[in-house]
Amino acid sequence: MKTGSVLVTGGSGFLAGHCILALLAAGHRVRTTLRSPQREAGLRAALASAGIDPGARLDIVTADLTADAGWAEAVAGCRHVLHVASPLSAAAPKHEDELIRPAREGTLRVLRAAHAAGVERVVLTSSFAAIGYGKPLSRPYAESDWTDPSAPGLAAYPKSKTLAERAAWEFVDGEGTSLELVVINPVGIFGPLLGPDMSASILLVKSMLEGRLAALPRLMFGVVDVRDVADLHLRAMTDPAAAGERFIATAGDFLTMQEIAQALRDRLGPAADKVSTRVLPDWLVRLVARFSAAARQAATPELGRRKNASSAKARAMLGWEPRPAAEALAATGESLIRLGIVPGR
Fold it and tell me: Domain 5-198+222-254+308-325, what fold?
C-alpha cells in the first residue's frame, strides 16, 4: 500500500534508520538524504539485516545540512518530512558554534525547502535538551518548558538544540504559515543498532559493558527505545491533532547512571560482568575535572541534580505506549554484542 512520499533526513543515523524501517513497514515510499553517496550501500545493508528489503520504495539523495545543494531535489514531491539529522559529537566541540550553527542553519534550510515544495507537515526531532536544562524544576519537565540558552555552564549541545528548535517555530510562525510543524523531544535514545554507527547514548552503554567506566558520576537521564521514538514520529506525522505541538518522548522516570548500570547487569547477566555500579562523589568528579576533559563533561551544573519529565501528552493525545526503560537498555547491549562491537560471554 502506498500511503505517500516521506523524506527522512540523515538516513544513516541511528534514529533515522529506524524511522525509515517503520515507514517502509507501514507501506510508505521513502526518500532519505545522506552526506555522502558512499554511505548508501551500508544503509541498504542495515535495512536488509533488519528484515526489510527497501527495493524501489527507498530513494537516496545527497544533501548536507551545511549547504543548499540537494535539498530542493530531496523534498520535491514529498508530502511529509521527518527532519531527524542533527550534528552531535561524542567529544565537546572546541567552540559551541561548531554545533549551534549547523543545527540552526540546517533546520532552517530544510524548512525553507519544505515550504517552497509545498510539504504539508514537518516533524522535527529536537531533544529533551531543549526543555530540561539551565532551569532546575521541582516538578517533572513538560512540553511548555524551555531550556535557557543563556544559563551559566550550559553545554553546547543543549544550547544548539534549543536555538534550532526556537528558530523552527519562529520560521513557521512567520514565513512558513502554510507549513505544519510538530516537534519530538526525546530523552536519551537507546535500543537496537542497525549498524556500526553509534549515538552518544549507545557509546555510554558500550563504555559500561567494556568496563571503561570504573565509577559513575551522579547524573540522571531519561531512557527511551529508538523503535518507540520512530513510532512517535509516524504518529506525529499523520495525526491531525499533532499539528503545532511538542511531545516529550521518555519511557518513564529518569534513571541515575547507577540505575542504568544495574539494569544492564540484571538483564544481560554475564555479558555485563564488567559493568560497574560504583558511584563517584560529586566533589571528586569536580576535582578530576580540573585535569580531565572527560570529567569536565560530567562536572556540569547537572551533576548531582535530580530531574524528571513526563510523556503524558504523547500517551494521551497520540496513544503512544513506549517499552520499559530496562528493555531499551537491554536491547542496546544485546545489539552491541550481536554486531561484535562488544565481546559477548
Answer: Rossmann fold (3.40.50)
